[in-house]
Write a structure and sequence with these properties.
heterotrimer; A mainly alpha (343); B mainly alpha (300); C alpha/beta (287); B: 300 residues; two-stranded antiparallel ribbon; 11 helices; 4 strands; C: 287 residues; alpha/beta; four-stranded antiparallel β-sheet; 13 helices; flat
C-alpha cells in the first residue's frame, strides 16, 4: 500500500509536464462517451474542485480556518445574476466582476477578524457566512429576490453560440479549472506561498522573521474569495437559477471537508476530496437521504485514521515517511511544538 | 407595557440559550474544543422527549402534564449517554491530534446526528401530543406570563443553580476546574482526567437534552434543523459570557435572549438572527475573552 | 552612540510587575548577557524589544529611533491630529504616525533586530532551507503578479533567496541538512537552524533567548565560537542564558535582573564578586 503510493508519487514527479498534458487530454475525452447526466456530474465535480482549490489557498496554505467560504461563492453567483438581469451584461463578461466583488467582500469581511486564531476564526467565519445568507434571504435593498433567489439568468454565449448542453459547460469549467490549477501551483511555489506556510506553521515566528502576517493572510483571503466568486458565476451561468441556499453552512462544510479530507495544501488531495464529498454522493442517488450521515461518518473516521488526508501534500508526506523510516536521529525532545493558542 | 412583555419573553428564551450554552462552555473548558455536535444533541433531546412522552402516555392511557416528568428523566439519561458515547468514539482518539482534527470530527458527529434524526423521524415538523403542555397564565403589571414560562424559568434556574454549586463545592467539580486548567498537572495530582471529561459529557448533553425537550414544549413544534440554529445561538451566548466560564454562559444566554427579543420587537423579526451574529462578530473582534473572561497574555 | 537603549522599560501583567524600570544600553558589536533567576523578566524584555507586546511604560530606542513605547490610549489617539490623518498617503504624516504608533514585530525585524526563541519555534514541517529562506522574506518583493507570471526579475530574486539561504546554512554548519524537515533535525541543530534563520534577516542586532539551553558541553563550546564569529562579522548580540559557562565565556558585559529590576551591570568578573548578584542566585545554581 505504502510502496504503491510512493511509487505513484515518484511516477508523478518524473515528468510532471507529460502527466499534466495527459490528464488534460483525458479530461477532454472523458465526457465524450457519457450521457448528459454523467456530464453534469462531471461538471459539478469540476465546480467543487475549483471551490476546493480556492479554499485550499486559505485553509491549506495559510492555515486559516475559513468555515464560511460558501458566502463568497454565493456573492459571485449573485453578482453575475444581478449584472445579467438588470444590466443585460453577457454572462462571460460578468465573470471578472464576480471575481472582483467576491474579492472585495473577502477583504472587507476578513480585514477586521484577521487577528483571530484557530477556533475563534472558525466561529466568526461561520457567523459571517450566515449573515450573508440571511441578508440574501431578507432581500436587502429589494434586489436579491429573497428566499427564492433569482431566476432566468442568461446562458453564456461564446462566439455567437449559446452554451446550453452540459458538455459545453463542462469544457468551460475545464478551461477555468486548468487556469486555476496552473495559478495555484505557481502561487504555492513562490515567495508568497512560502509566506503562507510560515504563517500556517508558526505565526509568531513568521512575524519575528519580518513577515507582515496581516498582509499575507489578507492576500490569501482575497485570492481565495475571488476564486470562489468565479466558481459562483460559473454556477449561475449553468443552472440559471440561484438562491441563498448556495451560502448555506452545509456548502461551506463540504468545501472545508474537501480540503481537509483530501489532504490540506495538496492539489490532488482536492480532487480526491471532491470525489468523496460530492461525486460519490451524487452518483448514489438512492443513498441521498443518508448523504449527510455519510459526510459526517467520513469526517470522523478520517480524522481518527488518517488525519493528514488521503493524498497529503509533499511536506506532510515527507514527514510521515521520516517518521516511519526512523533513519534520522530523533530529536532529543518533543520540542518546538507551539503552545496552543487560546484562553 | 410592551417593554416588560418583551423582557419576560426574552428572559425565557435566554434561559434556553443558557442551558445549551453551559454544554458548550463546559466542554470547551475541559477539552478546548468547540463541540459542534452539542446543538444536535440538544435537538435529539426534543425527539427523544417526543418518543418518551408518547410511550408514557400510552402506558398511562390518559393525557396529563405529569407525563412530562418521567419523559424528562428518559431524555436526560439518553442524551447524556449519547454525549458520552460521542466523546468516547469521536473525540478521545483525537485528544493529542492538534486543533483542526477534533473540530472536523465534531462537525462530522453533528451531521450524523442530524441525518439520523431526519431519516428516523422524517423531515416534517413534529408537534408534541396535545394536552401535555401547560396552559393558562397570569398578568403581571400588564404583561402576560404563561404558566409554561414560569415553569421554564424555575426549572432552568434550578438546574443552573445546582450545576453552579456542583462545580464550585464538590470534589468532582473541583477536579473539573483543575482539568480545565491543565490536563497533565491534574493527572499528576491524581485526578482521573478521562473520567472527569466523561462526567462533563454526561452533564452538558444531559442539560442540553432537557433544554431541547423544554424548547419543543414551549414552541410546540420543531424539526431536525432545530439544533443548528439554536446551537449556534447558544454558542454565541457562551462566547458572550466568556467561553469556559460557567456563570458567564448563564449571563450570556440571558443577555442574548433579551437583546434578540427586543431587537425583533422594536426593529424587525427577520433581522433578529443577523443581530445575534453581529453581536458575536463584534465581541470576537473587540473582546474575544467575553464579558466575564479575563485577558490572558499568550505565553511565548 | 548606543545601538539599543532601554529607558525605564516597564511591563505589568495585571497586578504583576514583570519588568520594573529597567535601563541599559548596548553599543555596536557588544555581546551583552541578560541573566537572572527564573521569572526575573528577561524574556518579557525580549518580547518588548521585538514588538510582541508593548511596554506598560518606558521606551526602547534602536539606532536613535523609538521602536517601543507605551501604546496610545483611545483618548490620546482621538486628540492626536496625526492619528486622524494617518490613513492619508502623505509621507511626512505617515512618518510622524510611525513614530507614535506601536510597531509590529515584522517592522522591528525590518529595522534590523532578529531573534530566536526560548522554546524553539521553527517551521517544523518545512525544510531547513525553507526555514532560512523565511529570514529573507522582508528583503525581497515578489507578490501575486511575480508568483503567477514569473518574470525574469522574480526568477532572479528566487535564485538569490536560495543562494543566500544556503550561505547561512553553510555558515551555521547545516548544509548537510538542507532538505531535511526542521522537526527531524537533532535538537542542537534545531537551535543552530533558528540562529541561521535569524541571521538571514541580516540584522544589526541579534537577540538570542537561551541559545545554549539543552545543548551538551561540546555543542555549547561550538555555539560560543559561532556567536563570537557572528559578532566579528559586525552583528551586535544580546542574549539571555542560564548556562554560566557560556555567559562568562562570551559576554563582555552582563545585566543582572531579579524580580523585574536591574540589580547590577558590569563585566563578568565584576558580577561574580557582586554581593547582590550572589544573593539573588543563592539557592540557585552556583555562579
Amino acid at each position: 500500500m505504502e510502496s504503491l503510493l510512493t511509487r505513484l508519487r515518484k511516477a508523478f514527479s518524473l515528468r510532471p509536464l507529460w502527466w499534466q498534458v495527459g490528464l488534460i487530454v483525458l479530461a477532454i475525452l472523458l465526457p465524450l462517451p457519457m450521457g448528459d447526466y454523467y456530464r453534469s456530474v462531471l461538471w459539478r465535480t469540476g465546480l467543487y474542485v475549483m471551490l476546493g482549490l480556492s479554499l485550499n489557498i486559505i485553509l491549506g496554505y495559510a492555515g486559516l480556518f475559513q468555515l464560511g467560504h460558501a458566502a463568497f461563492y454565493a456573492l459571485g453567483a449573485y453578482t453575475c445574476a444581478l449584472l445579467n438581469i438588470h444590466f443585460d451584461v453577457p454572462i462571460l463578461l460578468t465573470y471578472p466582476a464576480s471575481v472582483i466583488v467576491a474579492a472585495v467582500f473577502g477583504y472587507l469581511i476578513t480585514r477586521p477578524i484577521l487577528h483571530l486564531r484557530g477556533d475563534y476564526l472558525c466561529i466568526v467565519t461561520i457567523a459571517f457566512g450566515e449573515v450573508v445568507r440571511l441578508v440574501l434571504v431578507n432581500n436587502l435593498f429589494g434586489i436579491t429576490g429573497g428566499a427564492n433567489g433569482l431566476s432566468s439568468i442568461d446562458r453564456p454565449v461564446l462566439f455567437g453560440m449559446v452554451l446550453r448542453a452540459p458538455i459545453y459547460h463542462y469544457y468551460l469549467m475545464l478551461f477555468f479549472l486548468v487556469i486555476t490549477i496552473f495559478a495555484v501551483q505557481r502561487l504555492e511555489h513562490s515567495r508568497l506561498g512560502r509566506a503562507w506556510m510560515y504563517v500556517r506553521e508558526d505565526q509568531v515566528a513568521a512575524e519575528a522573521m519580518g513577515i507582515d502576517t496581516t498582509r499575507v493572510k489578507l492576500l490569501a483571503f482575497v485570492l481565495g474569495s475571488g476564486w470562489a466568486g468565479l466558481a459562483g458565476a460559473l454556477y449561475a451561468g449553468r443552472i440559471t437559477v440561484i438562491s441563498p441556499d448556495q451560502s448555506k453552512f452545509l456548502e461551506s462544510v463540504i468545501m472545508f471537508c474537501i480540503v481537509v479530507l483530501g489532504g490540506t495544501g495538496s492539489i490532488p488531495g482536492v480532487f480526491v476530496g471532491t470525489l468523496g464529498m460530492v461525486t460519490l454522493p451524487e452518483l448514489s442517488r438512492p443513498l441521498r437521504a443518508w448523504r449527510d450521515a455519510w459526510l459526517g461518518f467520513a469526517m470522523v473516521i478520517m480524522m481518527i485514521l488518517r488525519p493528514e488526508g488521503l493524498l497529503p501534500s509533499r511536506r506532510v508526506a515527507m514527514e510521515i515517511r521520516a517518521k516511519k523510516e526512523e533513519a534520522l536521529p530523533a530529536p532529543s525532545t518533543g520540542s518546538g511544538r507551539a503552545p496552543a493558542a487560546g484562553t | 407595557m410592551q417593554f416588560l412583555q418583551q423582557m419576560i419573553n426574552g428572559i425565557t428564551i435566554g434561559a434556553f440559550y443558557s442551558l445549551v450554552a453551559l454544554g458548550y462552555t463546559m466542554v470547551y473548558g475541559v477539552l478546548k474544543l468547540i463541540n459542534f455536535a452539542h446543538g444536535d444533541l440538544f435537538m435529539w433531546g426534543a425527539y427523544v422527549g417526543l418518543t418518551g412522552l408518547n410511550v408514557v402516555l400510552a402506558l398511562l392511557a390518559q393525557t396529563s402534564p405529569l407525563a412530562i416528568l418521567p419523559a424528562v428523566v428518559v431524555v436526560m439519561v439518553t442524551v447524556a449517554l449519547v454525549g458520552v458515547l460521542v466523546e468516547r468514539v469521536a473525540y478521545r482518539p483525537l485528544r493529542t491530534a492538534g486543533r483542526l482534527a477534533p473540530v472536523i470530527s465534531a462537525l462530522g458527529v453533528a451531521f450524523i446526528l442530524q441525518s439520523l434524526a431526519r431519516n428516523i423521524y422524517g423531515a416534517s415538523y413534529k408537534t408534541y401530543p396535545a394536552g401535555v403542555a401547560l396552559t393558562g397564565g397570569t398578568t403581571l403589571g400588564g404583561a402576560r406570563v404563561s404558566v409554561m414560562q414560569i415553569v421554564v424559568l424555575t426549572v432552568s434556574f434550578m438546574l443552573m443553580g445546582v450545576l453552579y454549586l456542583f462545580v464550585q463545592r464538590t470534589r468532582i467539580g473541583t477536579a473539573m476546574r483543575a482539568v480545565s486548567l491543565d490536563h497533565d498537572t491534574s493527572r499528576l495530582m491524581g485526578i482521573d482526567v478521562n473520567r472527569i471529561i466523561a462526567i462533563v459529557f454526561l452533564i452538558g448533553p444531559g442539560l442540553g437534552g432537557v433544554a431541547g425537550m423544554i424548547v419543543a414544549l414551549y414552541y410546540g413544534s420543531f424539526d431536525f434543523t432545530l439544533g443548528w440554529v439554536f446551537g449556534l445561538k447558544a454558542f454565541i451566548a457562551a462566547i458572550m459570557g466568556g467561553i469556559g466560564n460557567i456563570p458567564g454562559a448563564m449571563l450570556g444566554g440571558m443577555l442574548l435572549g433579551i437583546i434578540e427579543t427586543l431587537g425583533s420587537g422594536y426593529l424587525s423579526p427577520q433581522w433578529k438572527d443577523v443581530i445575534a451574529y453581529m453581536i458575536l462578530i463584534l465581541i470576537l473582534i473587540f473582546r474575544p475573552t467575553g464579558l466575564l473572561g479575563e485577558r490572558v497574555a499568550e505565553k511565548l | 552612540m548606543a545601538l539599543l537603549e532601554l529607558r525605564t522599560l516597564t511591563k505589568q501583567f495585571g497586578g504583576l510587575v514583570a519588568v520594573d524600570r529597567v535601563d541599559f544600553e548596548l553599543n555596536d558589536r557588544d555581546i551583552l548577557g541578560l541573566i537572572g533567576p527564573n521569572g526575573a523578566g528577561k524574556t518579557t524584555i525580549f518580547n518588548m524589544i521585538t514588538g510582541i507586546y508593548p511596554p506598560t511604560a518606558g521606551e526602547v530606542y534602536f539606532r536613535d529611533q523609538r521602536i517601543a513605547h507605551e501604546p496610545l490610549t483611545w483618548r490620546q489617539r482621538l486628540s492626536t491630529p496625526t492619528w486622524w490623518a494617518s490613513w492619508l498617503p502623505i509621507p511626512s504624516v505617515r512618518q510622524q504616525w510611525d513614530g507614535l504608533r506601536a510597531l509590529q514585530p515584522h517592522e522591528i525585524t525590518e529595522r534590523g533586530i532578529a531573534r530566536t526563541f526560548q522554546t524553539i519555534r521553527l517551521f517544523n514541517n518545512l525544510t531547513a532551507l525553507e526555514n532560512v529562506m523565511a529570514g529573507l522574506h522582508h528583503r525581497t518583493h515578489a507578490g501575486v503578479w511575480g508568483a503567477l507570471f514569473r518574470p525574469p526579475s522574480q526568477q532572479k530574486e528566487e535564485a538569490t533567496i536560495v543562494a543566500e539561504a544556503e550561505r547561512h546554512l553553510v555558515f551555521m554548519g547545516l548544509e548537510d541538512y538542507r532538505d531535511e524537515l526542521a522537526k527531524s533535525l537533532p535538537y542542537g541543530h534545531q537551535r543552530r537552524l533558528e540562529i541561521a534563520r535569524a541571521l538571514a534577516a541580516e540584522p544589526a542586532l541579534l537577540v538570542l533567548d537561551e541559545p545554549a539551553a539543552g545543548l551538551n558541553e561540546q555543542e555549547s563550546l561550538e555555539l560560543m565560537a559561532l556567536i563570537r564569529l557572528i559578532r566579528d562579522s559586525g552583528i551586535t548580540i544580546l542574549l539571555i542564558e542560564h548556562d554560566m559557562k557560556v555567559v562568562m565565556g562570551i559576554c563582555e558585559r552582563i545585566v543582572v535582573l531579579d524580580y523585574g529590576k536591574k540589580i547590577a551591570e558590569g563585566t563578568p568578573a565584576e558580577m561574580q564578586r557582586n554581593p547582590r548578584v550572589i544573593e539573588a542566585y543563592l539557592g540557585e545554581e552556583e555562579v
